[in-house]
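= Tokenised fold =
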Amino acid sequence: MAFWWPLLVLAAAYALCRLLLLLIPPTVPSIDVDASDVLEDPKTDSFIYIPPRKGKSAQTDKVQCYEPATMKYLGYFPALTPEEVKEHVAQARKAQKVWAKSSFKQRRQFLRILLKVSSRDTGKTMVDASLGEIMTTCEKITWLLDEGEKWLKPEYRSSGRSMLHKRAKVEFYPLGVVGAIVSWNYPFHNVFNPVLAAVFSGNAAVIKVSEHASWSGCFYYRIIQAALSAVGAPDNLVHIITGFAETGQALVSSVDKIIFVGSPGVGRMIMQRASETLIPVTLELGGKDSFIVCEDVDLPNVVQVAVRAALQSSGQNCAGAERFYVHKDIYASFVSQVVKIVKSICVSTLRNFRILLMMLLRRGAEIAVRGSFGNLGEDAVDQFFPPTVLVNVNHTMKIMQEEAFGPILPIMKFDSDEEAIKLANDSKYGLGCAVFSGDQKRAIRIASQLHCGVAAINDFASSYMCQSLPFGGVKDSGFGRFAGVEGLRACCLVKAVVEDRFWPYIKTMIPKPIQLLVFLQYPVSEHGFEFQQLLVETLYGVSVWDRLRSLVNLLKMISEQNARPAPVTTKKRR
């Protein structure tokens, strides 16, 4: 016991020191970002912006910005030409060559500054922006600070039986310039997400923001630039560019990797353009997440989660559950409780959604309840659609197959777990799912059979807050991952390296008898194939006895060859 006491004391002291270090905040420099033009109230000196209708010609050299809720005009940004995009990428590439040599200490300081700013800034409604964008971004930064360097260091692997004298490892190097074309629904996180991974792994980043979120994206650019300047990063390491399809096409053709967040149709065009330069592609193309409720759940609690999950697909969130499957035994109770909650809710969504609703009603769907309009600003325009619960829906209806981007909760019933699995998998999308059951093993069993990239058990979208996990889907939801180890290393050139394990004491060399048996004797030795066969059996034989017998025969063959006199070669005289 006396032997263990000093070790226990040392371990306790070490743990205490680590705890105290965690309590001491790191020194993080403050940055000054000019936000005077952003904080000005546009109501007094702005006008209503009327976007051109489809089919009408619009300006292609300017990206017009307006506030969706009020249609108040905010200004414009230039729609960059292909030549201008190439110039931005060239500047980023030059800066990246310097940044690639930066230390992880410098990169972590950049993240700490962004963490300090992100935890105080917001964009949409306070609750939604804080939970869906600010918290997620802060969690990503924290994970990179805690674990990012570890996952970018060389990773040693097994060298196998035939290379025991070698050391095998994987090294991770920056790719160069990482491009991203991001959607409008998460303007803060969709900008910071690719920038954080790219810059921390030693890359430059060029982000093309959506034409519907250019105003906020360009403001976030000021924050990023100020943070990079504070840590002494080279100029032009990160760029935010604005424009339309032509701008995005030029970006894909110019960078070393492209990340795209958007629709499946545009994702296919991105892949086609990327195939011309054969760069890696990560596609996140949305989803039609299923929400399965078994009959043994705590119903009031699950109903609350279900309503919240449905309303996540509202306005500028658009990342919620869109297909609800409820066991037939609790279907009526589930619908009834959802109706009670939804009656008092109002959430905004995209325009023209009423047309889809009319089509659904014609095909037999029924409206169980619609929320009311309330808490709208006095200057709000006709940009809002109340939350709506639909019943009598089926998979022949568009609402169960296409992303709605609206606060609609379509509910179907199922008889068995097998039917729920079949319904959930009957979708061209495969991003996420949520499964609820009083028996956790049952919920896990159901989720394991769903063809999607993200699953939550007795919860919804919780995996996205775990930034150590990869995020992405399958089928029309895309491929590749961001977040986690997989997302971070996806921004890297992955290089396999083999080196001598005991250099310089043991070097790679081929003994002369073996050279004569197999490699350097022409014509090939009559024993060459026999030698190779014995070598394979020695290394990979099924049983120990087979390997030992082959080893004895192999050594015998080498000793016999070694005992033979070396062949004499003579030079012909001219």
